């Protein structure tokens, strides 16, 4: 049995797509997952499953959410080891010093390099980002709230489904997966 992390995109934001975490835990348990735990109200869940394909798990959770709540939510699933590798692969220093100003954007797939080339990093300074596989690491020295780069990286411009978490949440998810 393996540990997984489910990242729900765009729930409980501005009163839209409300998914109470207690109901999400029940939904995941109803799918046969065990050791289910959630973190915060932004759609982070950790669970154990016999199934091995994260993409299959994501589709199953998406379908269950649509049936249970009546709206669609994109779900990205990473194994515990993929999450640990994403943390280890961080190419930008300083995440630990300012975790609320550092985002990891998890992507449904590796983005098309041609789409990435259309983003001029110099246009967003002092914000910076690096892409490593299916994750984008970004540092926002002046905060995320007013950043134009944050909007670009978490939107659909790259042709893949993104969902972002700050560094503190990412590291807490790994801790939760390791319990």
In short:
The chain is built from 6 helices and 8 strands; from the N terminus they run βαββαβαβαββαβα.
Question: SSE layout and pairings?
Answer:
Layout: E1 2-8, H1 21-30, E2 34-39, E3 44-49, H2 54-69, E4 75-79, H3 80-88, E5 102-107, H4 113-117, E6 128-132, E7 135-139, H5 148-154, E8 162-166, H6 167-177
Antiparallel strand pairs: 1-3, 1-4, 2-3, 5-7, 5-8, 6-7
Helix pairs in contact: 3-6
Model description:
With 179 residues, this protein is α+β, with helices and mostly antiparallel strands. The chain folds into 2 domains: 2-82, 2-Layer Sandwich (Alpha-Beta Plaits); 83-168, no CATH class. It is built from 6 helices and 8 strands, in the order E-H-E-E-H-E-H-E-H-E-E-H-E-H. A 4-stranded antiparallel beta sheet has the order 2-3-1-4, sandwiched between helices. The model has no long low-confidence stretch (mean pLDDT 93).
